[in-house]
C-alpha cells in the first residue's frame, strides 16, 4: 500500500491508531512514574517526582478505554463528542512542541537554554496523538451520523462572508501586540514602567536582533504580521493559489499553540488588573498582558475557524459517496 493510499484510507485506521497511541503513551508515563522522571514526561522538563507522570498514566489509560469504546460502539454519538477533550489533553501535553519552531530563529537570540530532546520528542508524540484522536473522533462521528467518513457526505463549502470576517477578526486580534511592540522599537515605552528598552534584552537578543530593534523593527512584530497574512491567506481567494498542505499545517499548529497560550495570558492579565495576582512582569502594565499578549487567544480561535473553513472549502470530492 502506497503512503498516498494509506493517508486516503484514514477513517479505517484512525481509531485503532488512537487506541495504540494511548496505550503506548500511558505505558511510558507509568514507567516514568515508577523509575523517576524519564522519557520527557517530567512536568516542564524538571524533576517533579512521580505525581505528573502518574497523573499522565491514569489520564491516558482512561483515553485508551474511550478509544476502545469508539471501536466497539460506532453508532454511539456521544463517544465522539467525548473524544474531542482528549485532543485538547494531547495538545496540552505537547504544547511546547508547537512552539519549538522558534528554535529556527536562534540566529536572533543567544544564551538560550539547551534543547531537552527527550522532552521535545515526548511533546511531539503528544501532538501526534492529538492528530490521531482528532481523526478518530471525526471518523466516528461521521459513521454515527450515517455520512461518508471520508468527506462527511457534503459538498465543499463556499468561501462566504463569515469566512472572510473570521480572517479579519484574526488580523484585528494581533493589531494591539504588533502596534505595541513596534512602538517600543520606535522608542515609545507604552505600558512599560521599568528601566531599559522594553521588548529587547541584550543578554538574550542577538546582535542582529538588537540592530533591527534599534532601527525600529521588532522581530516578534514581524512574526505577528506574518500571522496576519496567514489568516488572510486562509480566508481570501488569493490564498487558494498557495500550496494547501503548508497552509493547513501552519494554521492548525498556530491555532493549537496560541489559543491556550493567549487564554492563560489574558486571564493572568485580568487578574493582575484587579490586583488579585502578580503577572511576574513587574515592568509591564496589566493591560499589556491582558490585551496585547492575551490577544493571542482570540487570534488562535479565529485562526482555527479560518483553517477549518479553508480545509472544507479546498477539499476535493472524495469520490466514495454521493453528497
Give an overview of the whole structure.
The protein is mainly α and 323 residues long. Helix content is 66%, strand content 0%. It has 12 helices and no strands. Helix 7 packs antiparallel against helix 11, helix 7 runs antiparallel to helix 12 and helix 10 runs antiparallel to helix 12. The longest helix has 30 residues.
Helix and strand topology:
Layout: H1 3-8, H2 10-35, H3 51-72, H4 77-93, H5 95-98, H6 117-145, H7 161-185, H8 207-214, H9 219-235, H10 244-273, H11 286-293, H12 295-314
Helix pairs in contact: 2-3, 2-6, 3-4, 4-6, 7-9, 7-11, 7-12, 9-10, 10-11, 10-12
Key features?
mainly alpha; 12 helices; 323 residues
Number of helices: 12
Number of strands: 0
Radius of gyration over alpha carbons?
A: 22 Å
Mean pLDDT: 83
Helical fraction equals 55-70%
Distance between the termini: 27 Å
Q: Which residues form runs of ≥5 with pLDDT under 50?
A: none
Q: How would you characterize the largest beta sheet?
A: none
Strand content: under 5%
Global shape: globular
Oligomer: single chain
Secondary-structure element series:
HHHHHHHHHHHH
Question: Structural class, from helix and strand content?
Answer: mainly alpha
